[in-house]
C-alpha cells in the first residue's frame, strides 16, 4: 500500500484571518495540520512561536533565510555578488530560529538580479557567488543536522528578476555544490510555469528533492481550484515514488482558509487519516 503524504500549512499564505504568527499556528492546528512552515518568522519573538508550536503539538518544518532589505528590492542574498557578509549574517539568524524551533529545513534564497543589470551578463558571477555561499551554508547546517534547500522561482509570473528559475538550473548548481545536506525544493507552481513536463522532472530529480510545495496554476489558489495541474495525479506520483517529506500548502485562499481545505479533507479521508 502506498505511503500517505504529509502536509504543512504555509503560514505566510494560509490563515490570513489570524493576525499574528502564533495565532496562525493555533488556527492551523485546529484544522488538523500537524506541521507548518513560514517564509520569515523573524518579526515574531522566537519564544512566542515555540510556545504555540508546543502547546498545539505542531512541528515547524521549513523557514527561509531573511530576504535582505525589502525596501531596496532584495529577496534573498545567496547569489548576490558582494553581499556575502550579509548572507552569512542572515544565515546565522535563520539557524538561530531553526534550532530554537527544532526546524530541520532552511530555504536558502538566491535573490534577484540587481536592478539595471542584464541577467546574461551577470549569470556567471552570480552562480559562482551562490555556489560559494551554499558550500559555506552546507558546512554550518551539517553541524546542526539541518537540510539546506534551493528553490527555483518562476520569472514569468511571480518575479521577473529572480536569479534561480528552473529545476535544471538549480540541479546544475547543486551538483557543483556537491553536499549531501543541500537539496532541491520542488514548488509545483513554479516548475509548471517554467517547464511543465512535471512527471518526467519529478521522476528525474526525485533523489534530490528535499521539500515540496503546491498551488494551482496560474492563479496560485487551492490545489483543487480550476487550473493546469491535476493534483490527484501528482499526489499519487509522489506516493508511488515513496516521498516521505512534507508538502507545503503555499497558496492564496480564494476565500476563508478553512472553507478552502475540502481538497485536503478529501485526501485525508481517502487515506484513513483524521
TrEMBL record:
Annotated active site: 151 (proton donor/acceptor), 250 (proton donor/acceptor)
Q: Which InterPro entries match?
A: HyI-like, Sugar_Epim/Isomerase, Xyl_isomerase-like_sf, Xyl_isomerase-like_TIM-brl
What is the top EC class of this enzyme, as a single word? isomerase
Q: Which residues form a coiled coil?
A: none
Provide the GO biological process annotations.
glyoxylate metabolic process
Write down the chemical reaction(s) this protein catalyses.
3-hydroxypyruvate = 2-hydroxy-3-oxopropanoate
Pfam families this protein is in? Answer: AP_endonuc_2
- EC number in record: 5.3.1.22
Which keywords belong to this entry?
Answer: Isomerase, Pyruvate
Q: Where is the Xylose isomerase-like TIM barrel domain?
A: 25-266
> Would you say which domain of life the source belongs to?
Eukaryota
Keyword Lipid biosynthesis appears in the UniProt entry: no
Q: Name one GO molecular function term.
A: hydroxypyruvate isomerase activity
Q: Which family does it belong to?
A: Belongs to the hyi family.
Q: What does this protein do?
A: Catalyzes the reversible isomerization between hydroxypyruvate and 2-hydroxy-3-oxopropanoate (also termed tartronate semialdehyde).
**What is the designated name of this protein?**
Putative hydroxypyruvate isomerase
- Species name for this entry? Callorhinchus milii
Question: Which gene underlies this protein?
Answer: hyi
